[in-house]
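Feature request, filed as a ticket because there's no other form

It would be nice if the structure record came with a short human-readable summary line next to the tokens. Right now we just get the raw output. Example of a typical job, pasted below so the devs can see what we mean:
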Amino acid sequence: MEQHLICLDLDGTLLTDEKTISPKTKATVQQAIKDGHIVIISTGRPHRASINYYHELGLTTPMVNFNGALIHHPLDHKWDAIHSPLPLRKAKEIVHMAKETGVKNILAEVKDHVHLHYHDEEMMKIFDTNEHPVTIGPLTSHLTTDPTSILIQPKEGDIEKVQEIRQELDKHAEAIDHRRWGAPWHVIEIVRSGLNKAVGVHKIAHYYHIPRERIIAFGDEDNDFEMIDYAGTGVAMGNAIDGLKSIADEVISTNQEDGIADFLDEYLYRNKTMK
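Raw output as currently delivered:
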């Protein structure tokens, strides 16, 4: 059997709009695992907000979190994990800029420790902080460790502010990479320069000795560009942004229509001769 590495983004890709894995997609992914393929989660989410899906699929593989800023193995702490946080000084420069620009909130994450600039129950719920440490208060004084990522939440509906902040962030391009979440949040996520999902996928593919041409990656947003471009078969969901569709090898049905399941069933089992 030709073993493939199957890389799954979560939101808008593996997950439905209700943030669940459909029974059909779950069954197909688990069948691929049984048949010897390597399945991983590659997400912008932190570990704490993706581990439940990891367990639901029955994965025993490494995982890519924070768009490549954390590459680790949830079940094997001896695995050669990589954590690449932002330098604290640069992080505080960005926090200061965001405050001066005027935003709704700023969030910094040190792996699973969340730092919120302003108290916000809705944001705490979104970022799944119930069972994890949360520090609330000015990040310029409370943040004392290099953060894995920073998220800037503009005021609701202020799309122009999003562009203004991103233009300011471009001035720090030597040190950071930044991307915008899709609707309805429009949150700007910042990680260390040079990090993306493809960095994590490359490391994991090397670990399993899987060549690039046997990597299948699924995504829908601008944080999936590098991974989709890197994979031997880059797959954009039907609900993906136009830019991602334009570089993908395949465009499939949406996350609401079991796009992943239908594609894997066709690609792995109908069109391929298993050797």
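Something like this underneath would help us a lot:
The two ends are 4 Å apart (CA to CA).
The chain is about 35% helix and 20% strand.
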